[in-house]
Amino acid sequence: MNNQEEFQERPVTFEPPEHHFVFLIAADGTLLGVNDDGDLALFDDADDRVIWDLGSEGVKHVSSGKMVPTEIKEDACSLPVGVDEVTLIVARGPEKLPSEYLDHFKREGWVCLTSILTPEIVERLQWVGGVDRHEHLEARNDSPKVCQDVAVGRAICEPISLWLIRQYLQTRDLHLGHPPNVTSLSPYDGKSRVQGWHSDIPYGRKNVADRKGPLKAVQRNVCVSDFAKANGATAFKLGSHADDNLPPSEWNPALDGPDFFGGTSPTARPYSGPESDVIEAPAGSIVLYDARTWHRAGFNHSEHKRGSMLMSFQTADVPPKKDTRSTCKKLYESPVYQELNALQQREITELMMNQPGE
Ligand SMILES: O=C(O)CCC(=O)C(=O)O
Protein backbone atom coordinates (compact mmCIF):
# COMPACT_ATOMS: atom_id res chain seq x y z
CA MET A 1 0.00 0.00 0.00
CA ASN A 2 1.14 3.49 -0.81
CA ASN A 3 1.15 5.49 2.44
CA GLN A 4 -0.17 8.52 0.60
CA GLU A 5 -3.36 6.57 0.26
CA GLU A 6 -3.86 6.42 4.01
CA PHE A 7 -7.13 7.66 5.50
CA GLN A 8 -8.65 7.89 2.04
CA GLU A 9 -11.66 5.67 2.64
CA ARG A 10 -14.68 6.60 0.52
CA PRO A 11 -17.37 8.18 2.71
CA VAL A 12 -20.95 7.01 2.22
CA THR A 13 -22.89 9.69 4.05
CA PHE A 14 -26.42 9.64 5.43
CA GLU A 15 -27.88 13.00 6.51
CA PRO A 16 -30.53 13.28 9.25
CA PRO A 17 -33.94 12.64 7.63
CA GLU A 18 -36.18 15.62 6.98
CA HIS A 19 -39.23 13.51 7.70
CA HIS A 20 -40.00 10.46 9.81
CA PHE A 21 -43.06 8.21 9.60
CA VAL A 22 -44.62 7.23 12.93
CA PHE A 23 -45.44 4.09 14.89
CA LEU A 24 -48.63 3.79 16.94
CA ILE A 25 -47.66 1.68 19.94
CA ALA A 26 -49.99 -0.04 22.44
CA ALA A 27 -49.07 -0.39 26.12
CA ASP A 28 -47.79 -3.94 25.61
CA GLY A 29 -45.47 -2.77 22.81
CA THR A 30 -47.50 -4.19 19.93
CA LEU A 31 -47.79 -1.96 16.88
CA LEU A 32 -50.98 -0.75 15.25
CA GLY A 33 -51.27 -1.72 11.62
CA VAL A 34 -53.74 -2.66 8.93
CA ASN A 35 -54.38 -6.34 8.25
CA ASP A 36 -55.09 -8.04 4.92
CA ASP A 37 -58.84 -7.34 5.34
CA GLY A 38 -58.14 -3.62 5.69
CA ASP A 39 -58.97 -3.59 9.42
CA LEU A 40 -56.93 -2.11 12.24
CA ALA A 41 -54.98 -4.78 14.12
CA LEU A 42 -52.00 -5.06 16.48
CA PHE A 43 -48.77 -6.70 15.31
CA ASP A 44 -45.48 -7.83 16.85
CA ASP A 45 -43.43 -7.35 13.67
CA ALA A 46 -42.43 -3.99 12.18
CA ASP A 47 -43.07 -4.52 8.48
CA ASP A 48 -44.90 -2.11 6.14
CA ARG A 49 -48.24 -2.92 7.78
CA VAL A 50 -47.38 -0.85 10.88
CA ILE A 51 -46.03 2.35 9.31
CA TRP A 52 -48.14 5.53 9.59
CA ASP A 53 -47.85 9.17 8.68
CA LEU A 54 -49.34 12.10 10.54
CA GLY A 55 -52.14 13.97 8.79
CA SER A 56 -54.07 17.08 9.83
CA GLU A 57 -57.11 15.07 10.98
CA GLY A 58 -55.60 11.80 11.99
CA VAL A 59 -53.15 9.24 10.71
CA LYS A 60 -52.58 7.76 7.27
CA HIS A 61 -51.50 4.17 6.71
CA VAL A 62 -48.57 4.65 4.36
CA SER A 63 -48.64 1.50 2.23
CA SER A 64 -52.44 1.35 1.72
CA GLY A 65 -53.23 5.08 1.88
CA LYS A 66 -56.04 4.36 4.37
CA MET A 67 -56.93 7.50 6.40
CA VAL A 68 -57.90 6.96 10.03
CA PRO A 69 -59.38 10.04 11.75
CA THR A 70 -58.25 10.48 15.34
CA GLU A 71 -57.34 13.22 17.74
CA ILE A 72 -53.74 13.17 18.92
CA LYS A 73 -53.15 14.77 22.31
CA GLU A 74 -49.78 14.75 24.05
CA ASP A 75 -48.43 12.16 21.62
CA ALA A 76 -51.27 9.69 22.27
CA CYS A 77 -54.52 8.74 20.60
CA SER A 78 -57.27 6.19 21.06
CA LEU A 79 -58.61 3.92 18.31
CA PRO A 80 -60.96 0.90 18.06
CA VAL A 81 -59.10 -2.36 17.41
CA GLY A 82 -61.57 -5.24 17.14
CA VAL A 83 -63.93 -4.84 20.11
CA ASP A 84 -61.42 -2.85 22.19
CA GLU A 85 -60.68 0.85 22.38
CA VAL A 86 -56.86 0.97 22.51
CA THR A 87 -54.68 3.84 23.70
CA LEU A 88 -51.67 4.27 21.42
CA ILE A 89 -48.49 6.27 21.80
CA VAL A 90 -47.44 8.12 18.65
CA ALA A 91 -43.70 7.50 18.39
CA ARG A 92 -40.91 8.24 15.97
CA GLY A 93 -40.84 5.83 13.06
CA PRO A 94 -38.47 5.26 10.16
CA GLU A 95 -37.51 7.52 7.29
CA LYS A 96 -38.44 4.83 4.77
CA LEU A 97 -40.79 1.86 4.55
CA PRO A 98 -39.30 -1.38 5.95
CA SER A 99 -39.68 -3.02 2.51
CA GLU A 100 -37.42 -0.33 0.99
CA TYR A 101 -34.73 -1.05 3.58
CA LEU A 102 -35.11 -4.76 2.91
CA ASP A 103 -34.67 -4.32 -0.85
CA HIS A 104 -31.43 -2.40 -0.24
CA PHE A 105 -30.20 -4.92 2.34
CA LYS A 106 -30.81 -7.89 0.02
CA ARG A 107 -29.28 -6.12 -2.97
CA GLU A 108 -26.18 -4.64 -1.28
CA GLY A 109 -25.62 -6.80 1.83
CA TRP A 110 -25.93 -3.77 4.11
CA VAL A 111 -28.41 -1.02 4.95
CA CYS A 112 -28.50 2.13 7.07
CA LEU A 113 -31.60 2.97 9.12
CA THR A 114 -30.83 6.65 9.52
CA SER A 115 -31.74 8.24 12.88
CA ILE A 116 -34.13 5.39 13.67
CA LEU A 117 -33.69 5.63 17.46
CA THR A 118 -35.32 8.48 19.36
CA PRO A 119 -33.14 11.30 20.74
CA GLU A 120 -34.14 10.14 24.27
CA ILE A 121 -32.71 6.64 23.68
CA VAL A 122 -29.57 8.10 22.10
CA GLU A 123 -29.00 10.42 25.04
CA ARG A 124 -29.28 7.53 27.54
CA LEU A 125 -26.97 5.31 25.46
CA GLN A 126 -24.42 8.12 25.47
CA TRP A 127 -24.74 8.30 29.25
CA VAL A 128 -24.23 4.53 29.59
CA GLY A 129 -21.20 4.68 27.29
CA GLY A 130 -19.67 7.83 28.81
CA VAL A 131 -19.52 9.55 25.42
CA ASP A 132 -20.59 12.82 23.83
CA ARG A 133 -21.87 15.20 26.53
CA HIS A 134 -21.21 12.48 29.14
CA GLU A 135 -17.59 11.97 28.16
CA HIS A 136 -16.47 13.18 31.59
CA LEU A 137 -18.13 10.09 33.12
CA GLU A 138 -16.43 6.69 33.40
CA ALA A 139 -18.51 3.96 31.78
CA ARG A 140 -19.61 1.60 34.59
CA ASN A 141 -18.54 -2.02 34.56
CA ASP A 142 -20.14 -3.13 37.83
CA SER A 143 -23.23 -4.51 36.04
CA PRO A 144 -24.10 -5.44 32.47
CA LYS A 145 -24.92 -2.39 30.35
CA VAL A 146 -28.40 -3.77 29.65
CA CYS A 147 -29.13 -3.47 33.41
CA GLN A 148 -27.85 0.12 33.63
CA ASP A 149 -30.54 1.86 31.62
CA VAL A 150 -33.68 0.78 29.79
CA ALA A 151 -32.40 2.51 26.63
CA VAL A 152 -30.01 -0.40 26.04
CA GLY A 153 -32.89 -2.92 25.94
CA ARG A 154 -34.98 -0.57 23.81
CA ALA A 155 -32.11 -0.25 21.34
CA ILE A 156 -31.72 -4.06 21.22
CA CYS A 157 -35.43 -4.33 20.37
CA GLU A 158 -35.59 -1.64 17.69
CA PRO A 159 -38.35 -3.35 15.72
CA ILE A 160 -37.54 -2.60 12.08
CA SER A 161 -33.95 -3.80 12.38
CA LEU A 162 -35.18 -7.02 14.05
CA TRP A 163 -37.67 -7.58 11.25
CA LEU A 164 -34.99 -6.91 8.60
CA ILE A 165 -32.49 -9.28 10.22
CA ARG A 166 -35.09 -12.06 10.40
CA GLN A 167 -36.10 -11.49 6.78
CA TYR A 168 -32.49 -11.38 5.54
CA LEU A 169 -31.47 -14.52 7.43
CA GLN A 170 -34.82 -16.17 6.66
CA THR A 171 -35.27 -17.47 10.18
CA ARG A 172 -36.54 -16.45 13.59
CA ASP A 173 -34.21 -18.91 15.30
CA LEU A 174 -31.55 -16.34 16.25
CA HIS A 175 -29.35 -15.66 19.26
CA LEU A 176 -26.97 -12.85 20.13
CA GLY A 177 -23.27 -13.64 19.72
CA HIS A 178 -22.31 -11.82 22.92
CA PRO A 179 -23.99 -9.66 25.61
CA PRO A 180 -24.96 -6.24 24.27
CA ASN A 181 -22.48 -3.56 25.25
CA VAL A 182 -22.03 0.17 24.73
CA THR A 183 -18.39 0.80 23.89
CA SER A 184 -16.24 3.72 22.84
CA LEU A 185 -13.39 4.18 20.40
CA SER A 186 -10.71 6.49 21.79
CA PRO A 187 -8.89 9.11 19.72
CA TYR A 188 -6.12 7.54 17.64
CA ASP A 189 -2.66 8.42 18.91
CA GLY A 190 -0.83 7.42 15.73
CA LYS A 191 1.06 4.52 17.29
CA SER A 192 -1.23 2.19 19.23
CA ARG A 193 -2.33 -1.03 17.68
CA VAL A 194 -5.65 -0.68 15.89
CA GLN A 195 -8.20 -3.23 14.80
CA GLY A 196 -7.37 -4.99 11.55
CA TRP A 197 -9.64 -5.95 8.68
CA HIS A 198 -11.79 -8.98 9.48
CA SER A 199 -15.14 -10.63 8.82
CA ASP A 200 -17.42 -11.90 11.56
CA ILE A 201 -18.06 -15.06 9.51
CA PRO A 202 -16.10 -17.37 9.65
CA TYR A 203 -16.70 -17.07 13.37
CA GLY A 204 -15.46 -18.92 16.41
CA ARG A 205 -12.47 -21.13 17.18
CA LYS A 206 -14.28 -24.39 17.75
CA ASN A 207 -16.88 -25.55 15.19
CA VAL A 208 -16.08 -22.52 13.06
CA ALA A 209 -19.08 -21.29 11.08
CA ASP A 210 -18.03 -21.17 7.43
CA ARG A 211 -18.48 -18.27 4.95
CA LYS A 212 -20.02 -20.59 2.39
CA GLY A 213 -23.48 -22.12 2.51
CA PRO A 214 -26.59 -20.58 4.05
CA LEU A 215 -26.51 -17.07 5.48
CA LYS A 216 -25.30 -17.22 9.06
CA ALA A 217 -25.29 -13.85 10.78
CA VAL A 218 -25.99 -10.14 10.59
CA GLN A 219 -23.99 -7.51 12.47
CA ARG A 220 -25.79 -4.48 13.80
CA ASN A 221 -23.82 -1.30 14.60
CA VAL A 222 -25.81 1.28 16.53
CA CYS A 223 -24.28 4.75 16.12
CA VAL A 224 -24.34 6.01 19.70
CA SER A 225 -22.34 9.10 18.68
CA ASP A 226 -22.53 10.67 15.25
CA PHE A 227 -20.47 8.38 13.01
CA ALA A 228 -18.10 10.22 10.69
CA LYS A 229 -14.87 9.35 8.96
CA ALA A 230 -13.16 11.94 11.18
CA ASN A 231 -14.13 10.19 14.43
CA GLY A 232 -13.53 6.61 13.42
CA ALA A 233 -16.82 5.41 11.97
CA THR A 234 -16.59 1.73 11.04
CA ALA A 235 -14.76 1.09 7.76
CA PHE A 236 -16.08 -1.53 5.34
CA LYS A 237 -15.38 -3.06 2.02
CA LEU A 238 -19.01 -2.83 0.98
CA GLY A 239 -20.08 -5.74 -1.16
CA SER A 240 -17.32 -8.06 0.13
CA HIS A 241 -19.93 -10.34 1.72
CA ALA A 242 -20.39 -11.81 -1.75
CA ASP A 243 -16.69 -12.72 -1.99
CA ASP A 244 -15.63 -16.20 -0.90
CA ASN A 245 -12.42 -14.82 0.56
CA LEU A 246 -11.30 -13.06 3.70
CA PRO A 247 -9.59 -9.64 3.45
CA PRO A 248 -6.26 -9.86 1.59
CA SER A 249 -3.13 -10.01 3.74
CA GLU A 250 -1.88 -6.68 2.25
CA TRP A 251 -4.84 -5.03 3.97
CA ASN A 252 -3.47 -6.16 7.34
CA PRO A 253 0.30 -5.59 7.14
CA ALA A 254 0.64 -5.73 10.94
CA LEU A 255 -0.57 -9.32 10.97
CA ASP A 256 2.48 -10.38 8.94
CA GLY A 257 5.07 -8.02 10.31
CA PRO A 258 6.99 -7.60 13.55
CA ASP A 259 4.45 -5.02 14.70
CA PHE A 260 1.61 -7.46 15.15
CA PHE A 261 1.72 -7.25 18.94
CA GLY A 262 3.08 -3.74 19.28
CA GLY A 263 1.62 -2.03 16.25
CA THR A 264 4.05 0.84 16.62
CA SER A 265 5.07 1.35 13.02
CA PRO A 266 2.86 3.59 10.88
CA THR A 267 3.52 1.21 7.99
CA ALA A 268 1.74 -1.50 9.91
CA ARG A 269 -1.59 0.25 9.85
CA PRO A 270 -4.42 -1.61 8.15
CA TYR A 271 -5.42 -0.50 4.69
CA SER A 272 -7.34 2.80 4.67
CA GLY A 273 -7.21 3.65 0.98
CA PRO A 274 -9.96 4.51 -1.49
CA GLU A 275 -10.97 0.88 -2.10
CA SER A 276 -12.60 0.91 1.34
CA ASP A 277 -15.73 2.68 2.54
CA VAL A 278 -16.86 4.45 5.68
CA ILE A 279 -20.55 4.76 6.51
CA GLU A 280 -21.22 8.18 8.05
CA ALA A 281 -24.56 8.52 9.84
CA PRO A 282 -26.07 10.56 12.67
CA ALA A 283 -26.25 9.25 16.23
CA GLY A 284 -29.28 6.97 16.59
CA SER A 285 -28.75 5.34 13.19
CA ILE A 286 -28.42 1.57 12.86
CA VAL A 287 -26.19 -0.04 10.23
CA LEU A 288 -26.98 -3.66 9.43
CA TYR A 289 -24.52 -5.72 7.41
CA ASP A 290 -23.99 -9.27 6.34
CA ALA A 291 -21.45 -10.66 8.82
CA ARG A 292 -19.17 -11.78 5.97
CA THR A 293 -18.50 -8.14 5.04
CA TRP A 294 -14.85 -7.12 5.58
CA HIS A 295 -14.70 -4.34 8.15
CA ARG A 296 -12.66 -2.78 10.94
CA ALA A 297 -12.96 0.08 13.42
CA GLY A 298 -12.03 3.41 11.82
CA PHE A 299 -9.22 5.76 12.84
CA ASN A 300 -10.61 8.27 15.30
CA HIS A 301 -8.88 11.51 14.34
CA SER A 302 -11.11 13.61 16.61
CA GLU A 303 -10.44 14.58 20.21
CA HIS A 304 -13.48 12.72 21.50
CA LYS A 305 -14.53 9.16 22.06
CA ARG A 306 -16.92 7.68 19.52
CA GLY A 307 -19.70 5.58 21.06
CA SER A 308 -21.27 2.50 19.52
CA MET A 309 -23.29 -0.56 20.37
CA LEU A 310 -22.18 -3.56 18.33
CA MET A 311 -24.29 -6.68 18.14
CA SER A 312 -24.19 -9.95 16.25
CA PHE A 313 -27.43 -11.77 15.40
CA GLN A 314 -26.56 -15.36 14.65
CA THR A 315 -28.38 -18.37 13.28
CA ALA A 316 -28.26 -21.76 14.98
CA ASP A 317 -25.19 -22.66 12.80
CA VAL A 318 -23.01 -20.20 14.73
CA PRO A 319 -21.73 -20.90 18.25
CA PRO A 320 -21.91 -17.64 20.24
CA LYS A 321 -18.67 -16.04 21.40
CA LYS A 322 -20.18 -15.57 24.84
CA ASP A 323 -23.29 -17.17 26.34
CA THR A 324 -25.79 -14.37 26.94
CA ARG A 325 -28.06 -16.28 29.34
CA SER A 326 -26.44 -15.17 32.60
CA THR A 327 -26.63 -11.50 31.49
CA CYS A 328 -30.29 -11.97 30.64
CA LYS A 329 -30.96 -13.49 34.09
CA LYS A 330 -29.32 -10.43 35.69
CA LEU A 331 -31.63 -8.25 33.61
CA TYR A 332 -34.67 -10.19 34.92
CA GLU A 333 -33.55 -9.36 38.47
CA SER A 334 -32.95 -5.69 37.67
CA PRO A 335 -35.68 -3.00 38.00
CA VAL A 336 -34.83 -2.01 34.41
CA TYR A 337 -36.61 -5.16 33.18
CA GLN A 338 -39.96 -3.79 34.42
CA GLU A 339 -39.45 -0.63 32.35
CA LEU A 340 -39.46 -2.68 29.14
CA ASN A 341 -42.86 -3.37 27.62
CA ALA A 342 -44.12 -6.94 27.20
CA LEU A 343 -43.04 -7.19 23.56
CA GLN A 344 -39.52 -5.98 24.39
CA GLN A 345 -39.32 -8.48 27.28
CA ARG A 346 -40.27 -11.29 24.87
CA GLU A 347 -37.78 -10.16 22.21
CA ILE A 348 -34.87 -9.91 24.64
CA THR A 349 -35.70 -13.29 26.15
CA GLU A 350 -35.84 -14.86 22.69
CA LEU A 351 -32.51 -13.36 21.58
CA MET A 352 -30.55 -13.85 24.80
CA MET A 353 -31.93 -17.12 26.24
CA ASN A 354 -31.97 -18.97 22.91
CA GLN A 355 -28.81 -21.04 22.41
CA PRO A 356 -27.91 -23.18 19.39
CA GLY A 357 -28.79 -26.82 19.83
CA GLU A 358 -31.17 -26.27 22.74
O1 LIG B 1 -15.81 -0.38 16.32
C1 LIG B 1 -16.15 -0.56 15.15
O2 LIG B 1 -16.44 0.38 14.42
C2 LIG B 1 -16.23 -1.93 14.55
C3 LIG B 1 -15.74 -3.00 15.45
C4 LIG B 1 -16.01 -4.33 14.89
O3 LIG B 1 -16.45 -4.45 13.84
C5 LIG B 1 -15.71 -5.55 15.58
O4 LIG B 1 -15.25 -5.49 16.70
O5 LIG B 1 -15.96 -6.63 14.99
Structural class per helix/strand content?
A: alpha+beta
Q: What is the overall shape?
A: globular
Bound molecules: 2-oxoglutaric acid
Largest sheet data: 6 strands, antiparallel
Q: Give the domain tally.
A: 2
How is the CATH topology of the largest domain named?
Jelly Rolls
Q: Judging by the overall fold, what is the CATH architecture of the largest domain?
A: Sandwich
The CATH class assignment of the largest domain is Mainly Beta
Average pLDDT, rounded to a whole number, is 94
Radius of gyration: 21 Å
How far apart are the first and last residues' alpha carbons, in Å?
A: 47 Å
**Helix segment count?**
8
Write out the CATH superfamily name of the largest domain.
Answer: q2cbj1_9rhob like domain
Lay out the secondary structure.
Blueprint: E1 10-13, E2 22-25, E3 31-34, E4 40-43, E5 52-55, E6 58-61, E7 67-69, E8 76-81, E9 84-92, H1 98-108, E10 110-113, H2 119-129, H3 150-156, H4 159-169, E11 174-176, E12 183-185, E13 217-223, E14 235-237, H5 253-256, E15 277-280, E16 286-290, E17 294-296, E18 306-315, H6 325-333, H7 336-339, H8 342-353
Parallel strand pairs: 1-15
Antiparallel strand pairs: 2-9, 3-4, 5-6, 6-7, 8-9, 10-16, 11-18, 12-18, 13-16, 13-18, 14-15, 14-17
Helix pairs in contact: 1-4, 2-3
This protein binds 2-oxoglutaric acid.
Residues 185, 200, 234, 295, 297, 308, 310 line the site of 2-oxoglutaric acid.
